Automatic annotation (TrEMBL):
The protein's name: Glycosyltransferase involved in cell wall biosynthesis
Signal peptide: none
Span list, region Disordered: 42-97, 194-229
Compositional bias segments (type: Pro residues): 47-63, 77-94
Compositionally biased region (Low complexity): 204-215
Organism listed in the record: Asanoa siamensis
Amino acid sequence: MATTPRLVLLRDSEWPDVPGVCCWRTAAAAAFTAAGTTVTDVTWQKPAPPPAVPKPPPPPPPSFARKAARKIRRTVFPPPPPPPPAPDPGPQPVPGLAAAGADVVVAESLRAALAAVDGGAPGERLWALALPPSRGLPGDTTTFGTLVNELAPRIAGFVTDSEIGRDAVERTVNTARPRVIILPPVVPDRPCPACADTSAPESTPTGGTAPQGPGSAMPTESPGIGSNTAEDVADDIAQLAGWRHPSDAYSFPMTRRRGLSAEWAPADLLDWAQESRGVPRPSLPDAPPEWTAAAQDRGAREVVAATLPAEAAPARSHRDVLISGFDLKFIRELADRIDDRADFTVSLDEWQFVSKGTSRTAPLLAEADTVVAEWARPSAVWLAKHKLPTQNLIVRLHRFEIEAPYPKQIEIDKVDAVVYIAPALGPRIRDEIGWPKEKLVYIPNFLDIDWLDRPKLPDARFAIGMVGTERSLKRLDLALDLVAAVRRVDPRFVLHIRSIVRDSTHAGVSRAEQEYAGWVEDRIERDPILRGGVSFEPPGRDMARWYRKVGAFLSMSDIEGVHLAAAEAMASGAVPVFRPWPGVSEVYDDHWVHRSVDDAAAALLANADPKVWAERSAAAKAEMRRRYDPAAVVGAWVDLLHGDIDRAREPFASYVRI
């Protein structure tokens, strides 16, 4: 009989039990109970500062004779060395947290979450409420930015209040790709018994609110965790209190509660003629945020589902899986999903060099039941040579390796299965490398569709996206031809590029690539049609946030395997425009592929009609759920890791052309 999961709400002792805070605590308990968990509270107490040791009064100044005697005495009888300093006990476990035996922990403050994970709490079960005080910047060094960046690689994820709040968290974090789930902390249709009759709080100068009633004083001491300050604690509490009675005074926290489309009080700024104060603050296009009990319950269910391990099939035994190779970026998310299951423990071994393993490679190989060589590179050669006969070896091959020398160095007889990620690659592996088709299994890349599928920003249909244009084979020059053709007709269209920018003097690239980059720079700068119509942003982990503003996407490459960025864009609802690179029609539906610049320009211009764009956007999403169904991808890998090759082929057999 299945047991009810146990969830701990980790309180922060610095948060007073005032209106707003009690509303969050009551709502969180109700939502997570509705999600099927048993909820208990544990309170984290900020460690007390060490007691100050009073300094002894200074002795009276010694006479000359005493000084001389002391010097002789120290020379003849040197004083013993001072005792060593007491060892630093380091972070301590949060009292009561381990005893609670939690399957899921939700910390109400970032510093409580940091204290828990520093004290040994399992990070994969820990979530933190993140209330961004501002829009944030990548690599933000504020207290909030420092804490979320420290926590992001170490915990399961963050809970925040709204889509705007999620954007701010993802924009701020650059240490990992954070998982952020929306769960509004204070909602009108789930009243808090403790403060249901409390009157509206007074506004603060920043548009927030101050807690009211007994015990509402803000903390005055610095908490001392993660360089947080009393002001940061007060800011979190003020946000929770302010959301109880939304105000029309503009502030970033209030935009998350009311939405940017709300009516706002005039800004306290001088007007154009500098004759009076009070400038109207226009509302902006935005969907109203959903602050309801239903949204809280939905967020709570997502947190629980994302934390608890998936149950294994009853007849399947546990297996230790090693994923090894140089550059694991395309398989990390899949590895996380497999590791979430009860029947697998996954270890990652990322080589720092293409041809040299790590100090962990051999020990991890010795412990593994199943080994996955990511890329058919020297790592796969080494793993095939050193694996035991009782171990299963799976090699995952991408397009680039077909033309490299490595595959023919792999002892294919020692390989149990070869996974390829694009249908067009199967015949090439068989014919050009000579590997038997009986070992080939087509499983597409894992695509986190639910993470990418978010509401688009207003008029996103006029924003054309492109990712990773730093090499000439990505053909940014053709994209510029296309965008220029579109902007001649409708200048509302703009190309947004997210990529490393290699200028004409960039070191480490060929002379031809430098010349290409310089020519592209000159064209964007000097062509009046393109000037103002192309923007660049550096790479980042917040791609789902970035795709919200992109309504179309260009794949202009000379050659690709699957062009995963295009798949991500389509999963977000961007309408794709593909150049006919080899194999594209086997990876994507053919009606997205355009045979000329004029055809592609006509397709983009048609997106100006909101109804046309909405239909195409829905079709792109549906295609990705069909071709890249995340559950089917994980299921196929589960079967393969358990050694069932025939069953692993079934989910995507209709796309195989061998």
